[in-house]
Amino acid sequence: MELYIHIPFCERKCAYCDFLSMPATLQIQRAYVEKLIDEIIGESGGVRAYEVTSIFIGGGTPSILPGEYILGILQAAGDYFDIRKDAEVTIEINPGTLDEHKLECYREAGINRISLGLQSADDWELKVLGRIHTYDDFLKSYQQVRLAGFSNVNVDLMSALPGQTLSSWEKTLKKVTMLRPEHISAYSLIIEEGTPFYERYGTGEKAFPPLPDEDTEREMYHMTKTILEEHGYHRYEISNYARKGFDCRHNTGYWTGVDYLGLGIGAASCISGFRFKKEGNLNTYLEMASRKDFPSCIYQDIQKLSVREQMEEFMFLGLRLTEGVSGAEFHQRFGQNMWNIYGNVIEDMKQQGLLRVEYPIVALTEKGTDLSNYVMSHFLLD
Ligand code: SF4
């Protein structure tokens, strides 16, 4: 099983962000962490049989918290869950929120993977995004992380930004590969409803700075793959690249259907075919945390997935991986032949050049990766 721990605090909200995150006083942060630890303890009873293979502390900006808070959270997890000795333990960090003491606490807490949110190496693009840091701030944080001895580092990047050109994206990729992080995530910006970017770009009206058009966005995607491969990174998922041996275990677990438990506000879980999430309002969460039936009282949208839904999910998530899905694994999980269920779709997609089949493996082709939403939509079962 994997644990996801949500820290919903940020210094301020970025213009494109629809994650569950907000600024908060130190007092609120402390109250949240106390309740989060209660939640960790409360949840551990129900999942005693599970061994935890990875922990991901995400946000928000987990590095905004004092280092001792992170230490306390992970000590509670270590005391109450069966955590495998070689578990991958990641924390998300944003430049401008880090210091050496925090890094010492992370090491003491057993964190062995750092994920740094950079997005762009161009200060003007960072400003348009509403990020709190410059590229130099990132360089400083990156150096601090390395000096503190962390040898597994991810850098998050984002393409298709307002005003971004192919040449500025190329510069970002080249600057970052020169630093030799072990892992790079490179997603395209999505304009989400309810964000300042949606007001500016969601209406279809022309806005400044303009978003790259669809063709440029695809060119950026292909450029990413080419440049990162030239520098020794393999693409193991649609938007994730790693040097040999550094695929993210936590995310790969998610794409291959490993059970996960989410802790903290809004966190999603999927355990033994049951999907649910936690209360998403911070004040309500804090209030409910004093109830006797906490944490079960903060469960929401509990849903038992049918076998067909689990099959769909297996295909949607598994096809994101470069290595694709395996018919043998499908049979092992569902006791049914993948070709009996999806044979026609697989053949049709193969004919269109969108899937490659190397029995018993099925994976997206390059063209299929470009049209992944179209391909996935055919794996819905009626
Ligand atoms: S740092 Fe991340 S979570 Fe926080 S506001 Fe910006 S995009 Fe959202």
Ranges with pLDDT <50 over ≥5 residues? none
Q: How many helical stretches? A: 15
User: Multimeric state of these chains?
Assistant: single chain
Strand order of the largest sheet: 7-8-6-5-4-3-2-1-9
Overall geometry comes to: globular
Any idea how many domains?
A: 2
CATH homology group of the largest domain? Aldolase class I
Strand percentage: 15-25%
Q: Tell me which ligands are bound.
A: iron/sulfur cluster
Q: The CATH topology of the largest domain is what?
A: TIM Barrel
For the biggest sheet, the summary is:
9 strands, mixed
Cα end-to-end separation:
30 Å
- Percent of residues in helical segments? 40-55%
Secondary structural class: alpha/beta
What's the total number of strands?
15
Highest CATH level, the class of the largest domain: Alpha Beta
CATH architecture of the largest domain: Alpha-Beta Barrel
Give the helices and strands as they follow along the chain: EHEHEHEHHEHEHHEEHEEEHEHEHHEEHH
**Radius of gyration over alpha carbons?**
21 Å
Q: Mean pLDDT, nearest integer?
A: 97
